[in-house]
User: What shape does this take?
Amino acid sequence: MKLYVSPRAPNPKRVRMFMAEKNMTDITLVPVDLNAHQHSEPSYVAKSPLSRVPVLELDDGTCISESRAICTYLESLVPDNNLMGVDGLERAQIEMADRLVEWYVLLPTMQWIRHVHPGLAPLEKPQFPAFGESQAEKRGPGLDWLESTLGKQAFVAGKRFTIADITAFCTIEFSRLMKFKPAEAGYPHIQAWRDRVAQRASASAGDN
Assistant: This one.
């Protein structure tokens, strides 16, 4: 199998961190240079019609895009060290938490950075800085929910580390491009959780 990735991008990092937690080392990583627009080349668009990373290409040529879909497939291959739930209720609770992070923290974070950070100008033409700053503000309710949640429990979806923690961690780390530090922004529980997760061996996956 091949996984098409881009260094430091949050969604490829999510999958690579998931793989690291599963100790999956037999998937070939294929770098895609987003600034060089390799994701827009016809050969890549054939694998990912919307020109997004990551994409998992199976040995028979089947391609799976979208980070969570890729992780669902990987979980089926390596069910040990379960990260997505062991029964219907836990799967629903973990997916709920993961989707809340995706929609209300990760998405506005990505829009904020893509439209404000000068290094991402080649990817976002044109950038709309005012829109980006509005997205930074829209992170507020999601971050408030995450802070409250982590003030009550050890991990995003409950008592154990799951895919929801991976999504949240990759989001907070991506925010560092804008010098965001949870403690300085008034989120001490997020900061304490982030620092704990950063100690995991998987935390550096996807950083290069």
About this structure: The chain has a mean pLDDT of 95. The longest strand covers residues 2-5. The CA atoms of residues 85 and 134 lie 35 Å apart.
